[in-house]
Amino acid sequence: MTGVSVTKTGPKQVMSGQPAIYRFSGIGNTSNVRLDSFYWRDIIPYEVRLQTVVTGTYNFPGTYKITYRVNGGDPRTLADNLSTRKNYALTASPTALGLKSGERVTEIMFVFGQAPAGFAQVEAPALNCTVISGISVSSFTNIADVGGVYNKQWIQGVSRWVTSVYKAPSKLPRTGY
Fold first, then answer.
1. Tens digit of pLDDT for each residue in 124-146?
2. Do residues 86 and 58 touch, judged by C-beta distance below 8 A?
3. Using CA of residue 81, residue 84, residue 88, residue 94, what is the dihedral sign?
4. pLDDT per residue over 141-158, tens digit each?
5. Cα 57 from Cα 59, distance rounded (Å)
6. Could you tell me which of 40, 18, 10, 17 has the C-alpha nearest to residue 127?
């Protein structure tokens, strides 16, 4: 039997300029076999900007790396040779990454390589983001996925989280005299 899992949660409602923290749970290889090329990834919506990556910890000893994409381009390495047993907080703001105006992180990926049967997250990873100023949509969806290869076949799972955008009324009602 093969299987993978990931669950993503975040704020139900946000306002322009507010923090938005996305948490991940249940990340793992639920198979009874080892998976190769194991990863989990988050596709960061246009409406938020990544600030910090909290890596979480995992139940099997090993190392992994984290890559990111800017405006959908080629993967860049955020950190490498991270221990699965240590929880890191990695700064990934546009300033820290040296991004130019108009550039943004569109994807973050944890690349583990091999994941034995039963590989699972212990401490929850999180992505700390900020909602863009002047947001004009009523809601947006954030998507996370996880996957690995067994017998030349990809085994994948997806989790989606929808966040509503709250807009303060532009004109407050008149009260009093």
1. 999 999 999 988 889 999 999 99
2. no
3. positive
4. 999 999 999 999 999 999
5. 7
6. 10
